[in-house]
Amino acid sequence: MSEQLKVPTMQEAMAEGRQPDYLFWVGSAGAFDDRAKKITKAFVKLLNKANVDFAVLGIEESDSGDAAKRAGNEFLFQMQAMTNIEVMNMYQVKKIITTDPHDFNTLKNEYPGLGGNYEVYHHTQFLKQLISEGRIKVKESEFKGKNVTFHDPCYLGRANDVFEAPRALIETLGVNFKEMKRSQRTSLCCGAGGAQMFKEPEKGDKDINVLRTEDALETNPEVIITACPFCNTMMTDGVKAKEKEDNIQVMDIAELIADAED
Amino acid sequence: MSFIPNILFALALIAGVGFFAKNVKKLMRNIKLGQDVDVSDKKSERWRNMAMIALGQSKMVKRPIAGFLHVIVYVGFIIINIEVLEIIIDGLFGTHRIFSSIGSLYGVLIGSFEILAVLVLVSVIVFWIRRNIIKIKRFWKSEMTAWPKNDANYILYFEMVLMTLFLVMNATDIPFQNMDSGNVISQFIAPWFSSLPETTLHIIERSAWWLHILGILVFLNYLYYSKHLHILLAFPNTYYGSVKPKGQFSNLESVTKEVKMMMDPNVDPFAAPPEGAENAVPAKFGASDVQDLNWVQLLNAYTCTECGRCTSECPANLTGKKLSPRKIMMDTRDRLEEVGKNIDANNGEFKEDGKQLLDDYITREELWACTSCNACVEACPVSIDPLSIIMDMRRYLVMEQSAAPVELNNMMTNIENNGAPWPYNQMDRLNWKNE
Q1: What whole-number distance in Å separates Cα of residue B326 and Cα of residue B305?
Q2: Over 50: is that where the pLDDT of A1 sits?
Q3: A15-52: per-residue pLDDT in tens?
Q4: At what angle do helices B198-222 and B146-171 cross, to 10 degrees?
């Protein structure tokens, strides 16, 4: 990505007297995790391309508190939520887009009860809208004709019934898409949810991400598509555990669209 | 003396229904031991859920074989119970097949009952084979030994016997066979008894009739001690089940109050508590025992029929971890029963017994293995939510005991100190832009 990304902050917009249409909620993973940062940038590239009027909170954003809540620390979650809500309400945020299904879920469902009422979109929903409005045109993709499968993030799919948007995006790519046996409502977790991302798994006979990668391998994919930074990490590790990293890529849907867009 | 059977019948009926009513009261008392929870919202959606999921079996048929067989047994159960109404009237007033006076419709009714009875019998036998011969994995998990295993089979035997008695009763009923209307199945069973004298036939018919209705009364009373309660509780349970997106977890109100106070610059932390506040019991965060759960969660526990669809979809369980969402529900019910018995034994007061749901029933290892993926919630055919219990117990571990795994404590300390689960500086949060 050679071109310069335009990433205005809410603070800058306010100083210029502007009220951006959307807040892009980057999230902790999107801001700090090396793999997730690439997804963040791919998505911003698309936002720039489509001339979306957005801004980020930048250093004024703090962790959503999602992982703390699922770990059982309701105090820390509500502290984080209320701090973030205070900032977002100060900027009169109305609409939020995020690439993280966990933050999507908590912002959309759990922040309203604490005074944060926003229209929240996952990036797959938003990209689908941009494409249908013709603001992004998907052209030749280097992935055209490749075998791909899609791993439903629990907090996007089962938790919030978003199944169709990512699939609609995949369809625009001209790829050879095959569902895993466990998909959509009965999709299997990658193993990262419920704060598992941050701890060693309990004793068992297998790691969850390996089991899920085996599900994916059954479809004989060249690319495993995800829509969540944590799923991406887990599936990438799973592919490595299966020693398939030379043949199989794990990519976010935003990266594939960004790649096909030029 | 011809009224003696009627009196005996009335007594059996009163005893059977009375004892059941007593247990229902106990059941409701136990469920009410749970915390209050507001379920007054979205009434029409709740009715719809009950109609679709409980009445319409919409989740059952997600697994077509078990679902199809279950629908047969379920429809059979409901429809054949019309026959029970006739049996009760006959039993009380000494009539014989009182409804037969309605004419040809009676034949149609009994005929369909007979067909259903055979279908139920076949389904129940297939269920038994799936459980005991094919040994489908979810019926053989570690929590499915001893009582839970036997309970499941007893229910199947009960249903086999009841259906057989119903058919034998019809087959040996000479006036009914002579009517030759509605004996669709029993006409083929009748020849097996044809060599017997009429008096013997009558005795068999009467015995089958009595055993059938007594069996039903016994089965009714077996429910409370069995996982089979779901045939009743599935209805309220699907009504009171969550109508929120699955990803939405409750925000603890008691925490909200404290956090708001902490964040409000106008609050004087040293101010005297407001009038009456001294008497307020400080809220316990999360759940360590059944009384800390809300009553819908306790209703969930009584509704669980231990089918294990949740456990068979649980990523932790699939990868050999100890967590089984079904066990969470079974443990909750077992502990609730224990608490209930404790209350009965101590004149209506719970006497501290040194036990609790946490550790004595559900281990921390199980709780920490959950990925909160909602697969169990999705899988449940009757809207049970094991995940909410797991989360409430985690809340207790973290907020009351600071007993999270050490890596999670690190993660939470990071969030507290620098607003991210990893030790990165908040000031670097936009650095990705220029990297």
Answers
A1: 9
A2: no
A3: 999 999 999 999 999 999 999 999 999 999 999 999 99
A4: 150
Which single residue is written with the structure tokens 């625009």? A172
Minimal Cα–Cα distance from B63 to chain A, Å? 12
User: Residue B402: left if φ>0, alpha if ψ -120 to 50, beta else—which one?
Assistant: left
B43: contact with A, CB 8 A cutoff: no
Token pair, residue A176, equals: 């050879």
* Contact partners, residue B364, CB within 8 Å, separation at least 6: B358, B397, B403
Q: Collect all residues with Cβ–Cβ distance below 8 Å to B162 and sequence separation of at least 6.
A: B212, B215, B216, B219
Class of the CATH domain delimited by A10-130 = alpha beta
Test B263 with A82 for CB contact under 8 angstroms. Answer: yes
From B369, B373, B420, residue closest to A63, measured CB to CB: B420
Q: Where in chain A is the domain with CATH 3.40.50?
A: 10-130, 137-261
The class that CATH gives domain A137-261 is: alpha beta
Which residue among A37, A59, A188 sits closest to B427, beta carbon to beta carbon?
A59
Chain B environment of A208 (Cβ under 8 Å): 315-316, 318-319, 371
Distance of CA B299 to the CA centre of its chain: 8
Instruction: Give CA B361 to chain center in angstroms.
Output: 19
- Partner-chain residue, chosen from B394, B407, B419, that has the shortest CB–CB distance to A200: B407
* Contact of B54 with B235, CB cutoff 8 Å: yes
Residue B378 half-sphere exposure toward CB, CA atoms < 13 A: 28
> Which residue from A minimizes the CA distance to B412?
A68
Architecture of domain B253-269+282-422: Orthogonal Bundle (1.10)
Give the closest residue to B246 by CA, choosing from B374, B423, B392.
B374
Better-scored residue on pLDDT, A115 or B283: A115
* Count of Cβ atoms closer than 10 Å to residue A145 Cβ: 12
For residues A30 and A229, the answer to whether their CB atoms sit within 8 Å is: yes
**B-chain residues within 8 Å CB-CB of A158?**
246-247, 373-375, 378
Helix (H, G, I), strand (E, B) or coil at A97: strand
Beta strands of B194-327 (E only): which ranges? none
- Residues B257-261: what's their mean pLDDT? 88
B289 touches chain A (CB under 8 A): no
Alpha carbon of A203: minimum distance to chain B alpha carbons (Å) = 6
Is B247–A160 a contact, with Cβ atoms under 8 angstroms apart? yes
In the structure encoding, which two tokens stand for residue B179, read together? 């009517």
Contacts of A159 in chain B (CB under 8 A): 245-248, 374
Query: In a 10 Å sphere around its CB, with 0-12 CB exposed, 13-18 middle and 19+ buried, how is residue A39 labelled?
Result: buried
Output the pTM of the full model: 0.94
pLDDT digits (tens, 9 = 90+) for B335-347: 999 999 999 999 9
Q: What pLDDT is attached to residue B435?
A: 86
CA torsion angle for B303, B309, B315, B321 (degrees, to 10)?
Answer: 70
- Terminal-to-terminal C-alpha distance of chain B: 99
Establish, for the pair of chains A and B, how many residue pairs have beta carbons separated by less than 8 Å. Answer: 222
Cα separation of B253 and B322, whole Å? 31
Of B327, B306, B307, nearest to B316 (Cα)? Answer: B327
Angle (CA) B147-B152-B154 rounded to 5° is 90
